[in-house]
Amino acid sequence: MSEPLPSRAKELQATSRSNLKVAVGLLTVHTTLSTHMFKLGLTEWQDCRLFGDEKEESEHTVSHCPALACKGTEPWDVCS
Ligand SMILES: [Zn+2]
Fold first, then answer.
1. What's the 51 CA to ligand 1 centre distance in angstroms?
2. What is the pLDDT of residues 13-65, one digit of tens each?
3. Which residue among 8, 20, 51, 65 is least enclosed by CB atoms within 10 Å?
4. Where are the alpha helices (DSSP H) in the chain?
5. Which residues make up the environment of ion ligand 1, defined by Cβ < 5 Å?
6. Which helix (H) or strand (E) covers residue 23, if one does?
7. What is the C-alpha separation between 28 and 76, in angstroms, rounded?
8. Residue 72, H or E segment
9. Could you tell me if 43 and 51 are in contact, meaning their C-beta atoms sit under 8 angstroms apart?
10. CA of residue 7 to ligand 1 center, whole Å
11. Spans of all domains in the chain
């Protein structure tokens, strides 16, 4: 495992708690994304709620979902 980057640590310390929650949730897959809710037995579907194109997983949400293609470079960015 590589050493922590001081510059990255400072960036994370300056990030809001709510944004960190989103980022950690996406990285650990402990989110309200459909695939996780399905595994917990809390929903009957796994498809993307925004586009219905693929399973709603972290990678899909951050990198592949056409419905989020206009979003910024951070997972919590929202376009108007
Ligand atoms: Zn999608």
1. 4
2. 899 999 888 888 888 888 889 999 999 999 999 999 988 889 999 999 888 88
3. 8
4. 6-13, 17-28, 34-39, 58-59
5. 48, 51, 53, 65
6. helix 17-28
7. 16
8. none
9. no
10. 32
11. 6-68
